[in-house]
Amino acid sequence: MQADYIILGQGLCGTLLSYHLIKAGKKVVVIDAFNPFSAGRVASGLINPVTGMRVVKSWMIDDFLPVADATYAALERQLGINIVTPYSLLEFHATPEIHNTYRERALQTSYLTEYPDTASLDPYFNFNFGISEISPCSIIDMRSLQNAWRTALQESGSLLEEKFDWSQLNATSGGITYKGITAKKLICCEGSAAMENPYFSLLPFALNKGEVLIADIPDLPRTHIFKHHLKITPWEDGLSWVGSSFDWKYTDLLPSETFRAKAEQQLESWLKIPFSIKEHWAASRPATVDHKPFTGFHPLHPAIGILNGMGAKGCSQAPYFAYNMAQHLIEGTDLFAETDIKRFTKILSRTTV
User: Which of 40, 16, 36, 38 is nearest to 28 (CA)?
Assistant: First the structure.
């Protein structure tokens, strides 16, 4: 089989990159072994323009949001499904000092205001130090998006459902072959599995384990995302996504009793209404040491590229960088300099592949 590109992985990056390439008329083969507990399928799908303990605008969010909006809207039209649901996020302040910090930051960005209707939340929550509203936020239905696009790939004969076998790959400066498939490039979008990738495992990933609970909170309004240590986000079937943790020193990807007990304790302290836990999931996020994604091509093997490392901001960042990678492949436009893996040429040149 002759293809223009092979894409390894059908998470969010692989989905968006293959979408742009196929839309441009390119022949694409996506290779992916389905994982129901991949980071993209466990994540809440939140796009939030404000981030961090310092309460500042997320990196490049003014550039990311228009591309994300356009990309997800186009996918909604093509796939005939709803992907994006707009919300605002209500941040409950834990201390007077935090409340004052948010009030100060609200003077510096239009994304952040003081929430005026705190009385309406009194029947549902315990809180003492005010609430800020972050808007616009949105929830991306990652599972529906990836499922619908997977079906489209299957129907067009563009999906090879298997674990990638690196021993079957032959890469030269002119292209690649894999199990009878020849292509110009292989683009690796396999998330945390990149640590097993012989070409890119030396990149400075900073994988972290995230755990979430799926809860039934029947009396809670589904009007906002609520945050107080944990986030409560509307989920499928009338349930709520509750999370998540960031564990940088994990030894396995099993759901832990430690997280569940702590999260339940926090919910009991915060909520005035009953809840029950239906699911408990864990996954590994493909974050990076310098908090910038990885895009570009291996310095010694130019037919092998990467689009990865989106971390917890994947829903906002991935549309921008997937489009940038697609335009680079199709039109030869420059890759975004701050994410280009040329910044790690010395590290990657040590590879023995």
Answer: 16
